[in-house]
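Weekly sync, protein design subgroup
Attendees: M.S., D.O., the rotation student, P.L. (late)

Item 1: inverse folding check
M.S. brought a backbone from last month's batch and wanted to see whether the design step gives back something sensible before we order anything. D.O. pointed out we never logged the input encoding, so this time it goes straight into the notes. Structure tokens as presented (192 positions):
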């Protein structure tokens, strides 16, 4: 039976696109039931609509970073009604807490642009450059109540090259992210 996914993202949605692509070329036996964003103008919503996937905005009440608990409760209810098996955070920039974690135990994944536990938080690629790291990468992990702290599922390495800018390094990390996320979803599914 094909897996039902929900994808939550705040931005461009290139990782969401990599999941769509993996479904289309047969690497992932899944369908995306819904894409949710906390920004009404996020391109991830465009990508979903273009594909005919349900795309909705979560109203976070004007808070910049907070993910209000009542919104998380409503999202948890909605995703359960849609019979979602796995929730994929793809560039989603708010912390998921108890209402969603309780509704989907060990079923929420996140992709982070660094080799966790190194460089959690925002702009991990800039953090890696500033720390003078020789290599960095990306991680897919289970989400827990901390920031980028849940159990690691898979990682990929990316070298930091002389002359790298934050943009060039992030772009190189994203190439690996797009391979890693569908593979890590498959691995998580095998453990369900
Ligand atoms: C990705 O690089 C993802 O790893 C990162 O945001 C970017 C989203 O890109 N996520 C985080 O930093 C979460 N802490 P996308 O919208 O093109 O998928």
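Designed sequence read out in the meeting:
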């Amino acid at each position: 039976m094909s897996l039902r996914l929900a994808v939550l993202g705040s931005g461009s949605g290139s990782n969401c696109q990599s999941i769509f692509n993996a479904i289309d070329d047969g690497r992932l036996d899944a369908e995306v039931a819904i894409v949710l964003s906390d920004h009404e103008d996020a391109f991830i919503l465009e990508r979903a609509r273009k594909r005919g996937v349900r795309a909705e905005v979560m109203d976070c009440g004007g808070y910049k970073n907070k993910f209000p608990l009542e919104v998380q409760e409503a999202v948890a209810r909605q995703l359960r009604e849609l019979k979602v098996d796995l929730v994929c955070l793809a560039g989603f920039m708010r912390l998921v807490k108890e209402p969603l974690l309780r509704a989907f135990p060990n079923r929420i994944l996140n992709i982070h642009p660094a080799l966790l536990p190194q460089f959690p938080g925002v702009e991990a690629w800039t953090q890696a450059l500033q720390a003078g790291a020789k290599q960095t990468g990306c991680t897919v992990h289970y989400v827990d109540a901390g920031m980028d702290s849940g159990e690691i599922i898979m990682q990929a390495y990316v070298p930091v090259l002389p002359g790298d800018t934050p943009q060039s390094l992030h772009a190189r990390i994203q190439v690996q992210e797009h391979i890693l996320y569908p593979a890590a979803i498959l691995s998580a599914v095998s453990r369900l």
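Discussion: The pocket of glycinamide ribonucleotide is lined by residues 9, 11-15, 90-91, 111-113, 124, 148, 174, 177 (CB under 6 Å). The CA atoms of residues 2 and 104 lie 18 Å apart.
Action: P.L. to compare against the previous round before Friday.
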